[in-house]
């Protein structure tokens, strides 16, 4: 259920908004798009806000009914310069990639794929699961120190869970308070699932980081602003804690991280800094070069038109 980014999401010639240097609650509505056969709500990137820390993409998928053979069916496609974070609330997805990985993911588990200089993967129906599919896929922009490095894949079946006043949280990646995920992290960012009952819960934050909240089920209130499924609540920087109030059970994901100094260039399934990086990656994908390898998938490779600045466009 990854990508692709379109000019509607992140126009390549438009500068994103800078991070807010004080606590705020800014609601950014998602827009509906399709990934394979599923409709998703894309919360990041948006024209007004490309990223939250290193988090630069967030698709909220479902809840949707799927069958053993039809659901998430995204054929092999390439990535550079990012990590994919796949997180499910309900259902199952089968991941295959050009490293030879074949991994089923279930709720509460993390699939983390690092693209580096180039990787390809497919996301498929499991051949056995029928029911509700509900989850999110997020991208993390890799820093200069690793974005040209080798690709990698890791599956984490057990992640740390902590109690809050009215529920629990799971640290998917990074650190919240004194709870740290074992997942690889190339930059200073954090992602946490929150599963809350009725009442108010308080989470510790880092004042220098910027944060955002995406609700998957129910509603969560930050101050006077109620956040429901369908968008992203940008929370700015300058907070040392976050109080969330719920009037009924609710689930969502809190993301955050140190604001980036350099703007990202995002096109299709690529995260880069220059157009030439993207053009080279596009040419390598079209040529089926060894850079992206092959994926042992029953699905066909995903084609793409060239970027608008490319000589073939």
Report what the structure shows.
With 313 residues, the protein is mainly beta. It has one domain: Jelly Rolls, CATH 2.60.120.10. The protein is 4% helix and 47% strand. It has one helix at residues 275-286; strands at 26-29, 31-35, 38-44, 55-66, 74-79, 82-90, 93-97, 102-105, 110-114, 119-124, 131-141, 152-156, 161-164, 167-173, 175-176, 179-180, 189-196, 199-204, 210-217, 220-222, 225-227, 231-236, 241-246, 250-257, 265-267, 270-272. The strands form seven sheets. Strands 1-22-19-24-17-14-13 form a seven-stranded antiparallel β-sheet, with no helix packed on it. The chain has a seven-stranded antiparallel β-sheet with strand order 2-3-4-11-6-9-12, with no helix packed on it. A hairpin with a 4-residue loop joins strand 7 (93-97) and strand 8 (102-105). The protein starts with 25 loop residues before the first strand and ends in a 27-residue tail after the last helix.
What is the overall shape?
globular
Q: Write the CATH fold name.
A: Jelly Rolls
**What is the beta-strand fraction?**
over 45%
**From the helix content, strand content and strand pairing, which structural class follows?**
mainly beta
Average pLDDT, to the nearest integer? 92
Instruction: State the CATH architecture.
Output: Sandwich
**Alpha plus pi helix count:** 1
Distance between the termini: 26 Å
User: How many β strands by DSSP?
Assistant: 26
Q: Return residue spans where pLDDT drops below 50 for at least 5 consecutive residues.
A: none
Which percent bin holds the helix content?
A: under 10%
- The CATH homologous superfamily is called Jelly Rolls
Name of the top-level CATH class: Mainly Beta
Q: Record the strand order, biggest sheet.
A: 1-22-19-24-17-14-13
Radius of gyration: 18 Å
How many discrete domains?
1
